[in-house]
Records
---
Amino acid sequence: MASIFSRIIAGEIPCYKVAETANFLAFLDIRPLTKGHTLVIPKIEEDYIFDLADAEFANLHVFSKQVAMALKQAIPCLRVGVCVMGLEVPHAHIHLIPFSQMEEMNFANPKLDLPSEEMQTIANTIAAHFKN
């Protein structure tokens, strides 16, 4: 069965797209820790990030860096944090989280509930800074 992320890639489920290449997709987390919290995924369906082929793993991280640079330009923050947990969705993914205080990186924090118009504006702003 396809993961929710595979269904997003296939266009069956909408997302707030930030960046896309032939092999990777970045989109806003719909339950963000901070404004701009982005998920970066490979388009191939692989559950565990460390099961990716070496080239795919490396390229995923290079793409994530490009997205993080766009995030840093678009969202006021001191840093863009990186987190890989991989239990919530059986599809390899990287969380990119803009933050200015360490506490903002805590997944136990309440998630933001932003209106769809604001989510789309954030996605558009980040996308405008993305350079591939």
Note: The chain has one domain: 4-104+111-129.
---
Amino acid sequence: MSITIASFDGADRTSVDEAYRIGSAVNDADLPDFPPSCRRRFDALFHTPMPGTRSLWALARLDGVPAGYLQLDLPQLDNTDNATAEVLVRPELRRRGVGRALHEYGVRLLREHGRKRVVAMAVSALPGGPPRSVAGDAFAAAIGAQPALAEVRRRLDVGEIDRVALRAALAEARPRAEGYHSVCWQGATPQEYVADIAYLDGRLLMDAPMGDVQWEPEQVDAERIRGNERALDARGRRRYHLGMRHEASGRLVAWTLLDVGASADWHAFQQITIVDPAHRGHRLGLIAKAENLHHLLTHESAVQVIDTWNAASNSYMVAINEQLGFRAVDSWTDWQLTL
């Protein structure tokens, strides 16, 4: 067997097409409950990347047949010792050395770019949950990576939302939130709130449990928020935001985001939810998430399920999600490799 690996970029449409097909096959095999891979999203990774991120790509061929690809994301504005990685191999071509070859190729690239550590995620089954391939965890352990953070994906089935219980929970929470009111919007953040959103976004890696992952808080300003928005627009992500405004200061002090992809109107992701530490204890997280769920479903009537991830140790956010009706599906491990 002969394995060849070549770097490529967005100008190499043949390699982009092959990588997309590999990713689609992996997605369908390993995560059959996920939406199919979105071509618009994949293409946007090349022509409209997230601000402050440089991506390196490589395609592996096994006896001339496209077999796997590597994506390395190298932060440029912060975390300049770090990288994240994705190594995907077609299911029918695994256990033939393709993943190992891509890994070794990636390590050389990372060292050339002065990176000291790399983080990647792998999925595994939960007891009683749907079956998942053990290949990701086994591969990460075999190359010497260490499990650095345990996360759990939870899913909300919209048809099973207990709306009576949710209304009762909101009625109980709202008196605790006197002096705050909700503000919702779609797509780009109104200019008056951009600075507040940048502050909250920048707090995420300070406040969320990170386990042993060595990742410093990101430097987020209004320009970076606008760059993120352009990248998400290019991916076709339809975004539904809700912020909690502190009436005395006029600032947004909590924020949550739900979004729907361009090619699967039945599926949404619950993205960031964060409350400024100075304003915790007022049930703002629950109120924001519940009201934004209503906001989303008012405009996206086809949505049937919503997925979200939390660190297993994030008991506060897990409790809110479970109160909303999210239920655990599978386990995800952030593996960290020191180079």
Note: The first helix runs from residue 13 to 30.
---
Amino acid sequence: MIRECVKRKLIITTFALIVFLITLTFPKVEEKIENVTISYQSGNTFPIYLLDKDNLVARTTLAMKETSTIEQAKEIITFLTINNSKSAYIPATFEPVIPNNTTLLSIDIQDQVLKVNFSKEFLNVAKGYEEKMIECLVYSLTELEDIKGVILYVEGNMLQKIPNTATALPSLLTRDIGVNKMYNLNSIKNVSKTTTYYIAKENDTIYYVPVTLLENNDNNKIEIVIERLKSNPSLRTNLMSYLNASSELSNYEILEETVYLSFSPLLYEGLANTEMTEVVKYSISLSLKDTLNIKNVVFTEDTTPAE
């Protein structure tokens, strides 16, 4: 009886030891998958311009794992391509626009200009989206610090017109092409071009939509942008601006690549929290950086007592 009991314990102990050794040799699949996800999400976030649900070119930020300019440019183009390998990382609010199966044939940087050569599938862009595709590409790629402009090629030939249209394109594409353009022109004289970043909201996600307005206006561009941000645009009713309509720009100064703005205290009046205050400041900053081609915007509050 005792011998049988000892034998049983020995068998149980041996079996437990075998199971323990097997678990040590098996790969931890779940842990590896989790590490891959965490590694990607911890990468640098980068602004990319995609289409929102209203088919407007919209600014969002996505995680980027690449660091060199060329590799980042390749990753941006991947994000912008329909049915791309990174689709799972694009929020449901946004959609890519470069046609499915488009191949990046080559990419090169020369004198801060990015030369991008696509396969012929690039020309299969859906009707009505041709100009939006160019805007998404140019605005996304010129967010790269070392890139001032883009030259597009298809099968080695420079793209001279917006695909499937008769509209000519400049050989060097910069942010001067504008985005989500609106026109209010009655003359070719005193044409002012300003880009204003409005706020859009989808569920709990806040993002920014740039709108370029070409109009006959010889006012200072800083004043034009601030005035436009005091009211909602006529382009789409879902675009908003939280800048208080009663706020006043007391003073401004441009020194080198920085603009200094001084506002009345009413700038932040009526805003629910600090987050919304930052949203207002961010929309002003994005607008002035694009319109004036500057790098920094500094906000100060005018504390001069009212007379």
Note: The first strand starts at residue 44 and ends at 51.
---
Amino acid sequence: MHTPRIVITSGEPAGIGPDTCVSLALSDWDCDLVVAADAKMLAAAAAALNLPLRIEPYDSSRPSEPHRAGTLRVLDIATAGPVTPGVLEPGNAAYVLRLLDRACDGCRNGEFDAMVTAPVQKSVIMDAGFAFSGHTEYLAQRCRVALPVMMLAGGGLRVALVTTHLPLSQVPAAITAERLTATLRIVNSELERLFDITAPRLLLLGLNPHAGESGHLGREEIEIIEPVAARLRQSGMRITGPVPADTAFTAKYLQNSDVVVAMYHDQGLPALKHAAFGEAVNITLGLPIIRLSVDHGTALALARSGRASDGSLRAALTLAIGMTR
């Protein structure tokens, strides 16, 4: 059986991404594990955490073989500025994006079977002058995909989002019939492709309180969400809703659903992160590559402290291995 080669981007160098990458390398994995990072920075992180780790240069010509604990193959990309744990350095923003570019391009050309991303700090990337609203949007642009879909999985839940990193004031205008239709179709097809779920059951949330209360608390459900759901049901998709978001995460609905489709970021993700924070996985649907990520941020205050958990990165790598198979 083919051993998948999976690349992990180590993310913001001042955060916990390097910590969790070196921690991950101390376990055996049923994949050829490669970390894209500054090799010297990773070695320094391992030393600071007192972790016994041998760094080896990544060689793309070597056959894939299962990762064995204690050794880490590193696709060496040098940082541009100094790395101080917990201290953001705008000079390293370009380095962080180079990691993503190299991993994404490697997945697109078949060098890697999947990519997993450690967290980045959006603010410092934007402060450095780059237009960057998040991994999801950046990788979609790199792959020339018009509409990526963010989905998180964990704690027995899957939650996909119609909109992602938008100010709340901009969400209603962004929920168009075209965007909602495309999102639901992507979620449906990707659950079949990546999770091997036949005829997925989608639980669709309303935008407004009480799903609009028959138009008294907003008309998006009547004018956009309900008509889209009805048309897609006629085409054979299994969609329930729109249902009120405040009751959707109850057994009555969840036991008959494979995924919850929320209208915006903070409508769906609080419930999932309550159920599985630190163990959940972020999956980008609709890309021509397999890309997963952690469910948390850079946690600058924990960098090189030994207190950072690698649980979410571990879960993401485990799921990535399963998807490539």
Note: The first strand starts at residue 5 and ends at 9.
